[in-house]
């Protein structure tokens, strides 16, 4: 199984809503990532979890809150987002041979 | 701050022609260089990951080379087809660092 799955595929939320993005992998990869991707720009790193501990936070605003409940799951909790947070949110894993596997992404629209 | 540069930014190539483009990266503390094929509104698709100086990798009509001493990698596409139209991203990580630093990509358009 070389797949990273993400739910939901699409999400529309208001600025006062609380929602969560979910990511799952069963490849046993120790590192899991959240990226934000705006149109026509490469992925922008947000967070890295390594062995279920947060190892990199790229100065992301606190309205984005990551969580890694176990080695297969990664969540991104969203609260009080702004319209400029609308983007494609990608989850990814890193294999022991440093190959990065991306999920299909969640297309988020903040209204 | 690690700088990964790709050139050219965009490229138009006639169908059937071959082409190549470049990724430059810091040569110190090198660990891995990644190439991705990316279509807008989709997630990047991994093409190659290379770790050894002099590495050459091939997947069908696409191949890549790596020079870690001088800090560059070339991606080659032989006999371009319309389905090769995409943005090609490279990403670099240095030793012991889980963070991948992406270049801004080369946008390739194949003209039928």
What can you see in these coordinates?
The complex is a heterodimer of chains A (111) and B (112). Chain A is mainly beta and 111 residues long. In chain A, 0% of the residues lie in helices and 59% in strands. In chain A, the strands form two sheets. In chain A, strands 2, 4, 5, 6, 9, 10 and 11 form a seven-stranded mixed sheet that branches. Chain A is globular. The N and C termini of chain A lie far apart (36 Å). The mean pLDDT of chain A is 93. Chain B is mostly beta strands and 112 residues long. Chain B is 0% helix and 55% strand. Chain B is built from no helices and eleven strands. In chain B, the strands form two sheets. In chain B, strands 2, 4, 5, 9, 10 and 11 form a six-stranded mixed sheet that branches. In chain B, β7 and β8 form a beta hairpin. The relative contact order of chain B is 0.34. At the A-B interface, β5, β9 and β10 of A face β4, β5 and β9 of B.
């Amino acid at each position: 199984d070389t797949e990273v799955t993400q739910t939901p595929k699409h999400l529309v939320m208001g600025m006062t809503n609380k929602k969560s993005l979910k990511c799952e992998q069963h490849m046993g990869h120790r590192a899991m990532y959240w990226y934000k991707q705006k149109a026509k720009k490469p992925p922008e790193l947000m967070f890295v979890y390594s062995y279920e501990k947060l190892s990199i936070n790229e100065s992301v605003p606190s309205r984005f809150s990551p969580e890694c409940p176990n080695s297969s799951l990664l969540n991104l909790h969203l609260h009080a987002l702004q319209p400029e947070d609308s983007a494609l949110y990608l989850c990814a894993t890193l294999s022991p041979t440093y190959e990065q596997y991306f999920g299909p992404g969640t297309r988020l629209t903040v209204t | 701050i690690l700088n990964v540069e790709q050139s050219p930014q965009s490229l138009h190539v006639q169908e059937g022609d071959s082409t190549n483009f470049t990724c430059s990266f810091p040569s110190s503390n090198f660990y891995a260089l990644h190439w991705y094929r990316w279509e807008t509104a989709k997630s990047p698709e991994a093409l190659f990951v290379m770790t050894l100086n002099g590495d050459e990798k091939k997947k069908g009509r696409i191949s890549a080379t790596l020079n870690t001493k001088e800090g560059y990698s070339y991606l080659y596409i032989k006999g371009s087809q319309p389905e090769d139209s995409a943005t090609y991203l490279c990403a670099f990580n240095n030793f012991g660092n889980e963070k991948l630093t992406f270049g801004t990509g080369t946008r390739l358009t194949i003209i039928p």
